Amino acid sequence: MDTQLLLLAALLLLPLAALLVAKQRGTRGGKNGARLPPGLPLLGNLLLLRRSSSDVEALLRRLVARHGPVVSLRVGSTLSIFIADHRLAHAALVGSGASLADRPAVTRALLGESDNTISRSSYGPVWRLLRRNLVAETLHPSRVRLFAPARAWVRRALAETLGREAEEAQARARAPPPVMEAFRHAMFCLLVLMCFGGRLDEPAVRAIAAAQHAWLMFMAQNANVFAFWPALTRILLRGRLQKGLDARRRQKELFVPLIEARRERKKQLDSPGGGGGASAAAPDKETTFEHSYVDTLLDIRLPDEGNRALTDDEMANLCSEFLTAGTDTTSTALQWIMAELVKNPAIQEKLYSEIKATCGDEQEEVGEEDTHRMPYLKAVVLEGLRRHPPAHFLLAHKAAEDIEVGGYLIPKGATVNFTVAEMGWDEREWDRPMDFVPERFLPGGDGEGVDVTGSREIKMMPFGVGRRICAGLGIAMLHLEYFVANLVREFEWKEVPGEKVDFTETREFTTVMKKPLRARLVRRTTG
């Protein structure tokens, strides 16, 4: 019903919109007479409101095949430009980096709240401050090492869960449950601990996970709809908007007390006689970490805003971003990689041989330092990210000024996106691109020495490229390598009889397996 109202409103406004578009096309041109990229007529773009993300992806493939690697779609007042060529993507994101480093105002347009987060902030001093804080104070290798005990705890809990589920399924002669829920919960527990500095009890973690999921689903299902003339959609879709406000309020009800607890702890440690001494931390040292992401947020001051501290609402939004960025993306990538290892037992066995040769049988786990000595492990993870990137598109960029890419004008204010998955599947760059071949990242392969940051060239870009590249690239690779290695060392992953691995995709917050992975896990013997 909501979409029908939008279509009706759009048809009523169509003559005016067409006039404005025609005026823009007639008056705006590049220095060399560049025109806007080709795409659907305005009326055709209205159909996008009724399409799923997978349908839009298929539509873009057809447009690119017909018009070339730079195409446009217009939904309401927003011009969206898509770039499907890796060389043009490099020219846009690296060559014209500052011009495309901005973001459209999303949460501000929807909910009227601050966009002061790393992923959503406009390109400027606030964004630089927030990103620098995250990278230096939480994601720097010296800080990441502080959370090694947390990763070990989560690894043990995940292995116990998977082992128990496998044994119960075997005892009852039934298929084991999908592994994705266990993956997601494990990653979420780890990120909650890193964010808030403590091991919360299970009900608290589940409550936060439910609040996060409600918010993510709201954004995934509504961001494009609300982008259709925001002033109009905020009026027509008041009921839907209220659901988003409710989801955001629930997050803050859960996050703010946890933020306040770290604030009080910081006051105690900073008080005379506290001094960071053992007396303040000893009672809860088994469940409370000395460092957390929230601790760093409490220290931030915004120089351009009177040197004020972040508000609790702003910190809650940053915590939500932190949990989102490292949970679904990592658990999704982990599921795709393990699915490929189930489907390709020879690859799994080759990886297991490397793990055994590196770690032997005496160690309790594959340590984080051990993963640095496993080139085939890194190749398996990179191939998983190339073949099954969790995000098929980046978060939208916004042009800060008129620029020209591939002979076309990208006007100031247009949103720009990139076909991440298609670039990783480009048969001009990759041999047998739809096959899972980790060896391509070893010496002599077509992915040898690939630069996932895209600074030199772009062949794959699962973390984005340029100034807005994912700040968590390093820790994401660490988590994937660490958990893949330990899961393969702990269990042999086999196909469940009658449950063939199905690589059909579906879009949720990330691009996941439409039929979630079920695997028969056989605990490996040591010695």
TrEMBL record:
Residues 265-285 are annotated as: Disordered. It is found in: Membrane. Heme binds at C470. Keywords: Heme, Iron, Membrane, Metal-binding, Monooxygenase, Oxidoreductase, Signal, Transmembrane, Transmembrane helix. It is a single-pass membrane protein. One of its GO terms (cellular component) is membrane. Transmembrane segments: none annotated. Residues 1-22 form the signal peptide. It comes from the Eukaryota. InterPro entries: Cyt_P450 (IPR001128), Cyt_P450_CS (IPR017972), Cyt_P450_E_grp-I (IPR002401), Cyt_P450_sf (IPR036396), Plant_metabolite_P450s (IPR051103). Coiled coil: none annotated. GO terms for molecular function: heme binding; iron ion binding; oxidoreductase activity, acting on paired donors, with incorporation or reduction of molecular oxygen, NAD(P)H as one donor, and incorporation of one atom of oxygen. Its cofactor is heme. Belongs to the cytochrome P450 family. PANTHER family: FLAVONOID 3'-MONOOXYGENASE-RELATED, OS10G0513400 PROTEIN. This is Ig-like domain-containing protein. The lineage of its organism: Eukaryota, Viridiplantae, Streptophyta, Embryophyta, Tracheophyta.
